[in-house]
Design brief:
With 238 residues, the chain is α+β, with helices and mostly antiparallel strands. Helix content is 55%, strand content 13%. It has a five-stranded antiparallel beta sheet, with helices on both faces. The chain contains eight helices and five strands; from the N terminus they run H-H-E-E-H-H-E-H-E-E-H-H-H. It folds into two domains: 166 residues, Beta-Lactamase; 61 residues, Arc Repressor Mutant, subunit A.
């Protein structure tokens, strides 16, 4: 397949899959892989983080989930090989392949004959692989391998963008939570003419007494100007 055709296909991906905010959805990209990469009947993405087991974070159906779970449970398969060697792994016919003796026959029983797993470059100790599955033997030719590698690079960028957005959202929530707690601590300091440590300890005690998150208690203090567990606070009866 000519590189010009590949470029046109991925330009079409961006044009057709872009949402109103310019983002691309991972499930949509996987569905598009099934129509763009010849031979692909199913697709999925495996993510492996440091210190945790690999997991399928997106798939086009139940079959990829079954095949992936089989690989994880047996500890072998094209996907795991791609993650460990960081190189693309192609299996022309699982019925004949000898690299994965436990996985291959069971995958054939489930209806998968060809697989193509392309590693994706992430960061922060995370590894991922784009997995393509076919019910036919010999489904993935050399041109398809090149296309899968380019497609994996696009999905890598998409996942990295999602990770950054999630991190930004977590930081924003943390900052908002700290602001709420800071304002509530200031209110309690003013009411009791106490120092910051004592006011914060009262806030924490109220959170524990009511079995609520510290931020939720702080929000209520900011709204009502008093602790929700005020009646239970022994210092209030002094």
């Amino acid at each position: 397949m000519a590189l010009e055709i590949m470029a046109d296909q991925f330009l079409d991906v961006v044009r057709t899959m872009s949402g109103g905010d310019g983002s691309l959805a991972v499930p949509s990209m996987l569905r598009y892989a099934c129509t763009t990469i010849p031979g692909t009947d199913h697709a999925g993405i495996t993510l492996a983080s440091s210190g945790s087991q690999p997991a399928t974070i997106a798939a086009t159906g139940e079959l990829p989930l079954e095949i992936d779970h089989l690989q994880y449970s047996l500890g072998e398969g094209p996907c795991l090989a791609a993650l460990s060697v960081t190189d693309l792994v192609r299996v022309g016919d699982l019925a004949l392949d000898e690299r994965f003796p436990r996985f291959a026959p069971r995958a054939v029983d489930l209806g998968v004959r060809s697989m193509l797993s392309a590693p994706m470059q992430l960061s922060d100790g995370e590894r991922a692989a784009l997995n393509l599955y076919s019910v036919r033997p010999g489904a993935f030719e050399p041109d398809h391998v090149a296309l899968a590698g380019i497609f994996a690079a696009y999905v890598s960028l998409l996942l990295l963008n999602h990770r950054r957005q999630e991190k930004i959202m977590r930081l924003e929530r943390a900052l908002e939570s700290n602001r709420e707690i800071g304002v509530a601590t200031g209110i309690l300091m003013e009411q009791r003419r106490s120092n910051q440590t004592a006011a914060f300890e009262r806030l924490v005690q109220a959170s524990q007494n009511s079995n609520r998150r510290l931020r939720d208690v702080a929000t209520e203090v900011n709204r009502t100007m008093q602790l929700p567990s005020l009646a239970e606070d022994p210092n209030q009866r002094q």
